[in-house]
């Protein structure tokens, strides 16, 4: 989440005039994240989240994202429910851009990630994958292997401004992944961005899964690899094997990984690390003036990539 587009009081009132949500009381910008503009909305009838979709989001993908949240929520996943306007539409326009309102979820993202959080999020991710079965719409992963090629090309000329030799590192890594990337593993709907700030907890329980705007169809185990990168490394760049084991065990308690998925996990983890290295690098080199957002450090994911490059088997992540 982030804020790129400011919203005035008059604009907000015009937007809300199409909804039965009462009178606006407050609209508070949410600064976390890097993609869309997000606000916490309070009205006389409750609390909601307003999202304005920025240029990286293709408006043609919005029915997939909003429909998926509805599909998952109807199957018991704790996800935001899109709010329909008086005409039944889930999508409107605010500040001249596509926008939607979704329900507010209680809970907080963990400040300090413990193994119990990793186990719970692993189980929640497996539940998401199972609940996604039967969703009628499909969306290719725009930030999959094909998308990485474009990001490498877009950042190659300036990558060494961030770290010496980074351009050659990402170019050679992409070539290695293209040679070894698996294509015949179980696939379906994935979240593709289930970082700690996109998961809410109430006590030990996962109370919310949010920010589905990278969701797509891809390898299910790749989504697990994204979570390994996002949840199981410490601030010094070292993998916490206890957290990794908890995440994989939690996932396996609801959807056991096949032997081929476990065998591919190191390559998938390398790909996940490269994906976030590239998008962070692109955002670092192309900062938006005046945006209420702080670009995230791409070198965090360079360190993770180097770790995964040295992994020979899934046992390095704490499982047999």
Walk me through what this model shows.
With 320 residues, the chain is an alpha+beta fold. It folds into two domains: 95 residues, Phosphorylase Kinase, domain 1, CATH 3.30.200.20; 203 residues, Aminoglycoside 3'-phosphotransferase, Chain: A, domain 2 (Alpha-Beta Complex). It is built from nine helices and nine strands. The strands form three sheets. A five-stranded antiparallel beta sheet has the order 1-2-3-5-4, with helices on one face. A hairpin with a 2-residue loop joins strand 7 and strand 8. The two termini are 37 Å apart.
Summarize the structure.
With 320 residues, the protein is α+β, with helices and mostly antiparallel strands. It contains 9 helices and 9 strands.
CATH superfamily of the largest domain: Aminoglycoside phosphotransferase (APH), C-terminal lobe
Total domain units: 2
Mean pLDDT: 94
Sketch the topology as an H/E string, one letter per element: HEEEHEEHHHEEEEHHHH
Distance between the termini: 37 Å
Total number of helical segments?
9
Can you tell me the CATH architecture of the largest domain?
A: Alpha-Beta Complex
CATH fold label of the largest domain: Aminoglycoside 3'-phosphotransferase, Chain: A, domain 2
Shape: globular
What's the CATH C level of the largest domain? Alpha Beta
Please describe the biggest sheet, giving its number of strands, its sense, and whether it closes into a barrel: 5 strands, antiparallel
Name the strands of the widest sheet in spatial order: 1-2-3-5-4
Beta-sheet strand percentage? 5-15%
Task: Give the arrangement of secondary structure elements.
Layout: H1 9-16, E1 24-29, E2 37-43, E3 46-52, H2 62-74, E4 92-94, E5 97-103, H3 115-131, H4 145-155, H5 166-180, E6 187-190, E7 199-202, E8 205-209, E9 216-219, H6 220-231, H7 241-252, H8 259-285, H9 299-309
Antiparallel strand pairs: 1-2, 2-3, 3-5, 4-5, 6-9, 7-8
């Amino acid at each position: 989440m982030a804020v790129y587009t400011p919203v005035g009081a008059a604009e907000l009132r015009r937007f809300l005039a199409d909804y039965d949500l009462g009178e606006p009381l407050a609209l508070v910008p949410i600064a976390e994240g890097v993609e869309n503009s997000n606000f916490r909305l309070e009205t006389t009838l409750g609390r909601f989240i307003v999202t304005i979709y920025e240029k990286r989001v293709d408006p043609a993908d919005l029915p997939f994202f909003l429909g998926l949240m509805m599909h998952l929520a109807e199957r018991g996943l704790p996800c935001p429910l899109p709010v329909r306007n008086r005409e039944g539409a889930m999508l409107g326009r605010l500040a001249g851009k596509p926008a939607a309102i979704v329900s507010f979820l209680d809970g907080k993202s963990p400040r300090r990630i413990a193994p119990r959080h990793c186990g719970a999020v692993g189980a929640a991710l497996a539940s998401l994958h199972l609940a996604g079965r039967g969703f009628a719409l499909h969306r290719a992963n725009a930030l999959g292997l094909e998308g990485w090629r474009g990001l490498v090309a877009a950042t190659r000329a300036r990558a060494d401004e961030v770290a010496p030799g980074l351009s050659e590192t990402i170019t050679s890594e992409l070539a290695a992944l293209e040679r070894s990337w698996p294509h015949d593993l179980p696939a379906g709907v994935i979240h593709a961005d289930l970082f700690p700030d996109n998961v809410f907890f109430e006590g030990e329980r996962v109370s919310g899964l949010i920010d589905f705007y990278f969701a797509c169809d891809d390898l299910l185990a790749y989504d697990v690899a994204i979570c390994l990168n996002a949840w199981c490394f410490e601030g010094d760049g070292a993998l916490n094997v206890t957290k990794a084991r908890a995440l994989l065990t939690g996932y396996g308690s609801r959807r056991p990984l096949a032997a081929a998925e476990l065998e591919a996990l190191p390559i998938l983890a390398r790909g996940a690390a490269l994906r976030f290295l590239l998008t962070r690098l692109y955002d670092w080199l192309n900062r938006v003036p005046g945006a209420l957002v702080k670009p995230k450090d791409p070198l965090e994911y360079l360190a993770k990539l180097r770790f995964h490059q040295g992994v020979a088997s899934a046992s390095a992540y704490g499982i047999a």
